[in-house]
Amino acid sequence: MSTERKNSPVMLDVKDITVAYGAITAVKGLTLSVREGEIVTLIGSNGAGKSTTLRTISGLLHPKNGSIEFKGEVISGKPGHEIVKLGICQSPEGRRIFPRMTVDENLDLGAFLRKDTAGIKESREQVLDLFPRLRERITQRAGTMSGGEQQMLAVARAMMGQPKLLILDEPSMGLAPVLVDLIFETIQKIREQGTTILLVEQNALAALRIADYAYVLESGHLKLEGNAKQLSTDPAIAKAYLGG
Question: Taking 70 as the threshold, does the pLDDT of residue 206 lie above it?
Answer without folding.
Answer: yes
